[in-house]
Amino acid sequence: MLIKICPSMMCADFSNLKEEVEKLELAGADMFHIDVMDGKYVPNFALGPQDIKALKSLATIPLDVHLMIENPEKYIELFAKLGCDIIYVHPESTTHIHRTLLQIKAAGKKAGVALNPGTSLAVLDEILNDLNYIMLMAVNPGFAGQDFIPETIDKAKRLKRDILKNNKYKDIKIAIDGSINTKNIPLLFDAGAELFVAGTSGLFKNGQTYKESIDELKKSISK
What we know:
- This protein is of the alpha/beta class.
- It has helices at residues 17-26, 49-58, 76-81, 97-106, 151-165, 185-191, 210-219, and strands at residues 4-7, 32-37, 63-68, 86-89, 110-115, 133-137, 173-177, 195-198.
């Protein structure tokens, strides 16, 4: 099982987006992660449709979008048309999570659910058949640069062991978002995670080149 590193583009320099995209792709990035925030579901604002359009015009690797917005069902078609390959939504953000996941699938995209640190895995019980990805938040959503919540490791273990393996949902991938670095990524990988969103802690503003950072993250699982 190979890990995938997904740079969090809210941490990138959008004034030099073409150069950022080229450097990240050459460094070995596997997918670009896009956070969309509306200032309501989370107390912050982040990237929007025009940012995604610009990124899509430059990228040669897939895009995933993390919708930290209220009533995401109203905007699934928009983000699908913008070219996002995976669309993550939060169960708390929509009245009918099952219907919203079906919308994503109907738009021809992979459906993902994002679980906050305080959201129980029990919320997955009735929607597993509609999921391609489950993203566990290792920080409370809304801001970059927060401390990693160590309980995320046990949560990932329980997700893989008690839910995905027992129910034979082997095709559902586990992603982790929040303060990923070379210390916690091996533990999360051993717990069953495969996709890792890298932000300020593991990739941006850490004093290394993007290639050095991504190489270290990927190599850390074999140590």
